[in-house]
Amino acid sequence: MRDMSTQIRIAGIIEESIVDGPGIRFVVFAQGCGHKCPGCHNPHTHSFDGGSLIEVEEAIKQMRNNPLLDGITLSGGEPFEQAAAMGELAFRARLLGYNVMTYTGYTYEYILENQDIISGWRKLLENTDTLVDGRFELDKKNLLLRFKGSENQRIINVRKSLLEGRMVLAE
Description:
- By secondary structure, the protein is an alpha/beta fold.
- It has five helices and seven strands.
């Protein structure tokens, strides 16, 4: 029987993006999100039944075919809804030297509180270099923000935050 944690239900992949994090990025959009933020940029990713399945190994193979990539961005949908598989993808990408950026509607603090309770959350968090956290809030939407959609969201340096034991914003 196939290990389902090696498969990700995705809404799609962008093989090269310069708007979903620093540098040239491979972007994986998770299918499924319970936040359903009003005004969401990707409402087609909300359903947990849509999209298609992809093996983690297939995503890694696609990334390795492009020597120009700086990193991978996990977006959605909600990557933490598939944390075991997304964590494995992040882990494998980091082993290959890629920077990992993850978008989530959860807050960093909530993820920390639940990382030992919800399967895969610790692995995904520990293999994320940069986390954009917080739900998209339509009344705080700002098109001038870099790499985030609303002013309540934060761009967090996860490596530094975990090392220092406190939340550290990315510079």
